[in-house]
Amino acid sequence: MAFAMLSFLMVPAVTFAQGNLNLGLEQIETGFGDNGLTNTDPRETVARLINVAMLFLGIIAVVIILAAGFKWMTAGGNEEKVAEARKLMGAGVIGLVIILSAWGIATFILRELVEATGGQIVNG
After folding, report:
1. Rounded to the nearest 5 degrees, what angle is found at the Cα of 52, between the Cα atoms of 47 and 58?
2. Average pLDDT, whole number, for the chain?
3. Mean pLDDT of all residues in 92-116
4. What is the DSSP secondary structure assignment for residue 75, as one 8-state letter?
5. What pLDDT shows up at residue 36?
6. Are 96 and 61 in contact (CB under 8 A)?
7. What secondary structure letter does DSSP report for 36?
8. Domain spans of the chain?
9. Radius of gyration over alpha carbons of the chain, in Å?
């Protein structure tokens, strides 16, 4: 039964040759049309990448703090596990402070860079 259900997933999808498949090649022939690329300033792109990276690092630090709290709560009075959980929580808090400091410094530098090069600050 399971083989019959899985074999359905292995059947290739039916393709229709008459379908309209737009690969964006029409704009290449006519010049710079709507080719899917944006006119975003590279400084803004770098700022967004830094913000996304800091977001992921912050999430990881918070997960480490939560895992340490869970380990502490389930230690059951075992001093070795409690000490290990305290170390892990301390490392998570220090990591979170470093991440927030790095984000603040990066935001400051990017704002100054944008202002020094004559750009505009979009979000704030």
Report:
1. 125
2. 75
3. 89
4. S
5. 59
6. yes
7. S
8. 2-116
9. 26
